[in-house]
Input
Amino acid sequence: MSSQRTFSIIKPDAMRKGHAGAILAEIDKAGFRIVAIKKLFLSKSQAEGFYYVHAHRPFFDSLTTFMSSGTIIALALEKENAIADLRKLMGATNPANAEEGTIRKKFAGSIEENAIHGSDAEDTAAFEIGYFFAGLELV
Ligand code: ATP
Ligand code: MG
Output
C-alpha cells in the first residue's frame, strides 16, 4: 500500500498526566512521519464539530466537555497503512479491552478519558486533518 495520512489527537487526560512526550515517542517508534503538529485548546463547540458523528450518542455531552477541558495536541501523520496501523497502536476504545503494549493500555484511564484519538477511515481522516490544519501547514 502507498503512503497514507491519518489524524490523531493526544487528549486532555494524557496531556494533564504528562504523557504527551511518551505518546509522541510511541508514534515515532512505530514509523509515522509527522506532517503537521500543534498544541491547542478546543472550545466546547469546536469539540462538538469534531465529534459530530457522535451527536446522538448518550455520551456526546460528556465527551465534548472532556475534549474541551484542557489542551490537546493535534497531529497529521503519514506512513503506509497509517489509518489501520494507528488504530492498532492505540488499542481498543475501552482500555480494559486494550491489548498489552498499546497506547491506551499504557496511558488511558477510562473508556472516555482514553488518551488518544485516531481516524477510522480515509474520509474521516481527510475531514479531521482539514478541521485542524490548513493545506500550507501540511509538510
Ligand atoms: P476516537 O474516535 O476518539 O479515536 P474510538 O474510535 O476508539 O475513539 P468512538 O466510538 O469513535 O471510539 O468514540 C469516540 C470517543 O468517545 C472515544 O474515544 C471515547 O473518548 C468516547 N466514548 C466512546 N464510547 C464511550 C462510552 N460508552 N462512554 C463514554 N465515552 C465514550
Ligand atoms: Mg472514533
